[in-house]
Amino acid sequence: MSLPLALWAVALSAVVLSAGPAHAAPGGLTTTEVSFSGDGGVVLRGTVLAPASATRRRPALVMVQGAGTRGRGELRAEAEAFARLGIVTLIYDKRTIGYSLFHRDYSVLADDALAALRLMRARADVDPARLGLWAQSEGAWVASLAAARSADPKFLITVGAVGSTPAAQTAWGYGQFLRHAGVSGSLPRTMQETGLRLLVGAGLFPEADYDPVPAWQNVHQPVLAQWGEFDREALPAESSRIIRQALERGGDTRYTIRFVPGVRHDLNLTADDGFDRIDSLPPGYGEFEASWIDGLAHDVPPATVGTVPQPNQMSRPLTPSAWYESPWLHLAVFALLLAAFAGYPVTAAVRRVLGRRGAPLVRRPARWLAALGLTTTLGSLLYLCFMLATAANVVGPVVAGRPLPWLVLQVLTVATVVTTLATALAWRRHRRSLDRAGRVRLGVLLTGGLVFLPWALYWGLLLP
Q1: 196, 313, 380, 455: least CB-packed within 10 angstroms?
Q2: Where would you find the membrane-spanning parts of this chain (predicted)?
């Protein structure tokens, strides 16, 4: 099949796969289950919500989700609000083929969004001249790419768009939530720099260095970019400035920058200045967007609506990793620590079965070193993984500026260093009473204790 013919086939498949009856929905709406072919032929399924009494072509939206694969239901309330205002709205499930926690490609997702637009453009109740994209959070990176490469979207509406790289934005968000919880000391730096650099270096942070500015510079459609007053994730003041400047550099002055009072990152209500996860839309949700779309028939002068939030912290680019931050080196160090600390009790059990015992005065501090080192190493890994996975949103009790688990780990770290010294002194004092196997066992254990010291310093466990 030739390339032009293949392109036509993809375009037509968005219509062919869309067959589905319309059903009545609450509030005078109809819903239609649809499917269409996205990038690479992946079939995506969605729901179109429309006014039940559609007698003319109406404006329409394709809604692009933020990060994750929670499904179209995540945006159902917003879609119903738009449909009640006379806007035909499509919500669809994000692909799971080619998109996961550790792999994503915004270019692929942009092609999916354009395929969804082709589906909507073929509907009899949609006005193609008033058909646009609505995108939230990560979806704004996707939608701006789609708008930059195609004239199909006639306008672009974003919620919580980020103007920096994903890595810088994530670090900034960690800082917001940790500061709100009253956390200070070494943990914020460990989360914002050390942990993120290791994730990026290990390939576990997809699209970490994606720069959204080139795409925004190539957007030439009218843009409504919105942020909540209490957006703690998208750097609203900084992102709005970056996006506005990018649009102007590309020659697009048909934009509206809007800051919505009383709401958080996704424009839902908040009872904790944006640090909670309430799913509740404010009264009149969607009315500004509907009015803005109606106004596109006229010129859209550049405008800023609302008060720009004052940033309490600017984002910083993630510094390049040093040679000692190689993921393979860290994996090797972690394996060495586990082998050294866990190996001592294992070999002790074997020696006990064989009727052999070590020197009593050395055995006691060595046992403590093995137990403390193993507990601290495994505990630190599990806690940092938990904090990274929850984006520092679940901190727990804070004591002396430290989350209680982190404080416990720091105490255990100091105890591990002390028992390393005690074991080394005991070994030196009683080394002549040890057999060769005992000296080897203690040598391996002490090697783990010595390696543990710089490892703990690097991860901030020995820092204030």
Answers
A1: 313
A2: 328-347, 368-392, 404-427, 439-461
